[in-house]
Description:
Elements: H1 8-18, E1 35-39, H2 43-52, E2 57-61, H3 64-73, E3 78-81, H4 90-98, E4 108-109
Parallel strand pairs: 1-2, 1-3, 3-4
Amino acid sequence: PDRRYSSARAVAGALAGFTGLFGPASAGSRSESGRILIAEDDPLVRGLIRAALAGYDCVETVDGAEAWAKLEAEPFDLVVVDVNLPQISGTQLLARLRSPTVLASRPRLL
Length: 110
């Protein structure tokens, strides 16, 4: 498993920079911290991302279609997207996010 998820350290490192976007997160301040959508189909990687963002209000989805439905229904401050998602790929999801809508101004991590 360590070799299969060798990029997990890179993901954790990238996410470490984003944790400062919303100020310090703690269990008591979840509602005051940023809302983050995690779109990842692999449960292990999703768990690693969730752990790296512990204390933030994270919503998880397992495919691109579910992620897009959540994005249309709820506001998120950050979107963390896997490249290879079922139904709608991560790159297709980001292309939709980049379209000229209110969603285009939100930070995202691929």
